[in-house]
Specification:
With 194 residues, this protein is mainly alpha-helical. It has one domain (53-190): Tetracycline Repressor, domain 2 (Orthogonal Bundle), CATH 1.10.357. It contains 10 helices and no strands. Helix 5 packs antiparallel against helix 10 (172-190) and helix 6 packs across helix 7 (108-118). The longest helix is centred in the middle third of the chain and has 24 residues, at 54-77. It is elongated and about 60 Å long. Residues 9-69 form the HTH tetR-type domain.
Amino acid sequence: MMDAPPADQVKQEAILTAALAVMCQYGYRRTSMGDIAQAAGMSRPALYQHFQGKEDIARRMVEVYFDTAARAVSQALAGTGSVEDLLARGLAAKTGPMVRDMLDSPHGAELLDVKDSHAREVVAAGTARLTGVFADWLAREAAAGRVRLDGTAEEVAVLILGALDGIKRPPYAQFVEARERLAHVLGRGLATGS
């Protein structure tokens, strides 16, 4: 039997969920700590017991995003299927529900910019971690003779993730179409055909 997460962790997850919903509704700049507290069902003083401010919440949201994405991508790339299918699953896993909510928001572009202004170091570490996950997969696929790499596995992983970030813009449905095209083009280009 698994232990239940600590009450503090459960409360912080509820705060982050509420914060994302409010930020998607009002945008990052217009969202106040009072808005977040109200959405989380607590007082502002109680909210400040968990987070120092809106920037602290934004940083933690980015950390949670990268932790979740790294696990989801690892799992997706560990499956079976063609290179194109696995790449499509890996890219979809990187851009899960949080990205969907942000891109479907009228404030999507603003929310995507928050990570660069309030969580640069978290983004750098998270991106490095995801690059490693994709690079490990590419190295395994190359060793199995399923892909050919023009450069190191890490260099190709950087290109894949850079291309994915380059097409990330609202609305989510258009992003998904572009992401699927990207996976198709890159997957076919990487596959050896064997």
